[in-house]
Amino acid sequence: MNKERKLIVAGNWKMNKTVAEALDLVRGLKLELANVKEVDVVVCPPFTALEAVGKAVLDSNIRLGAQNMSEHNVGAHTGEIAAVMLKEFSVRYVILGHSERRQDQKEADALIARKAAAVHGAALKPIICVGETLAERQAGEMQKVLETQVRGSLAGLTGEQMEESIIAYEPVWAIGTGQTATTAQAQEAHAFIRGLLVKMFNETVARRVRIQYGGSVKPSNARELMSQPDVDGALVGGASLEARSFADIIKNSI
Ligand code: 13P
Asked: What residue owns the CA closest to ligand 1's atom 7?
């Protein structure tokens, strides 16, 4: 597929996989994806499997991501994980502001923006998630919600940092439901987000930022989604938990 931006497909394993299971999965992925160069491939295991998976992917084209990070660098923050700790395990990417954390941990845009600053401060790349709920979409508020989230979560980033950031558009109603957004719905939201980046930064920055789609991505719908001009990859949940389906999503995207 001839794309303006290099595709980036990331697997968000969420709260799945023990160390043994994670190693099993990553062994399978290394075999399946050994020759893939056209797509940036990232896996995001739970914190407890980062060290093992980080070692396992060192000699491969697979990069490592974390699912969250503290806004603080060190100190009295029980249960939190700092950038320097992630870097020990060769982490390159950090998912921020996933809708499950926005909902369960009440993460707000301002906190996500501070975390994004910390991620860049450590020379890591954030994958910043945004997306509307079904009720918001049905109320005709998709654009309003996306604008608030994008402006709030990216507040304070420089143009240079923005270019090194990834945005994941994940409509909440499509996550884990099997109900994927149509290609038209995905393209419309992605184009809207890119338009916001033009206003917040400039044309050049907006053209360089990769925007992933997330929400029930499967091998069968990956090609169609990725063929949209403003869809630059995928953030995959359920289908990333099995080597064959994650690899097929990547192969079908090329
Ligand atoms: P599913 O692919 O399971 O719908 O999850 C998407 C997601 O939330 C990725 O971050």
From this structure: 237
- Cα 252 from chain centroid? 19
Ligand 1 atom with the shortest distance to the CA of 168 = 10
Domain positions in the chain are 7-253
pTM above 0.85, yes or no: yes
Report the b/e string of 185-220 with b at 16+ CB within 10 A: bbbbbbebbbebbeebbeeebbeebbbbbbbbbbbe
Cα distance between residue 112 and residue 250, in whole Å:
28
Closest CA to 103 of 176, 50, 54: 176
Residues enclosing ligand 1, CB less than 6 A? Answer: 12, 98, 170, 175-176, 214-217, 235-239
Instruction: For residue 216, give the ligand 1 atom closest to its CA.
Output: 4
pLDDT tens digits, residue range 190-202? 999 999 999 999 9
Within 8 A by CB and 6+ apart from 43, the residues are 10, 11, 13, 26, 29, 53, 57, 62, 63, 64, 65, 240
- Residue with the smallest CA separation from ligand 1 atom 1 is 237
The alpha carbon of 243 and the centre of ligand 1 are apart by a number of angstroms equal to 16
| CATH fold for the domain made of 7-253 | TIM Barrel (3.20.20)
Distance 145 CA to ligand 1 centre (A): 19
pLDDT digits (tens, 9 = 90+) for 94-133: 999 999 999 999 999 999 999 999 999 999 999 999 999 9
What values do phi and psi take at 51, rounded to 5? -65, -50
Any idea which residues carry the catalytic annotation?
98, 170
